[in-house]
User: Fold this.
Amino acid sequence: GGIYKSTDATGTSFTQISATLPSSYSDKWAYIYEMAASPLTARVYACTNGGLYFTEDGGTTWTNPVIYPATNPYTATSHDVEVASNGAVYTVVGDKVFYSPNGNSGTFVDRSIPGLSASSVGRCEIAVAPSNPNVVYASVALINGALKNIYKTIDGGQNWTVIGPGGSANFNVFGDNSQGIWDNTIVVHPTNENRILLGGIDLWEWEEGGTWLQKSLWYLDPSSAYYLHADQHDIVYDPSDPSVFYHGSDGGVSRTTDGGTTFTTMNRKYGTIQFYALTAN
Assistant:
């Protein structure tokens, strides 16, 4: 259905932005994978099935700012966009990571991770450190959904280092079913650029100088403080308290108040069951 917009500050009502109404299932606006707003301007970015787009007039007009490889806008599928605290923009388009100091058209440069290709990458998710716009992490799933690697850069993507290698039974982030195209999320701690959370089947934590720690077990009883529902999609820190973050999964919303040691499911009157088929006799 394209993109919807609320202007009442509470999200009580939304209206569909007509410029994003898809004309068919193959239209770029039929698939919106990620959105981000600049903290410094009125610009809003959207990742679509036909590349990255931004609007500066509330959604009336949209522009593809990624010119690649020469003079044409790059229209491969865009899966992620992140706006850094200084207004710099990182985006994943196809198998490539692009960087721009300000997000303007024609300013994006290729900062791709070496060794990746369109034929091998299924999904790439990135996260920028709020405390340092040059520090970026990437979680890359192969075309079959298995983990390729987790990467880190400290120079805005000019150089990438593997911090979490794929192919390990002890670090099987996306599970035996290789679900990295479905559940794949990564976020940087608000004040510590060297600490991240990674979500796949379960939640993992990594800090520079340490090892990967598994923070949850999906198969525990839901009453357990260490339970998080499988298939994790988003992690959002409380802006006023970094020991609190919210966690979105196939099972709804969970919350921690101790930095991810224990969790509470917050699905009060919220149902998450999805039916895939129905039959009558």
The first strand starts at residue 4 and ends at 5. Residues 90 and 99 are 5 Å apart (CA to CA).
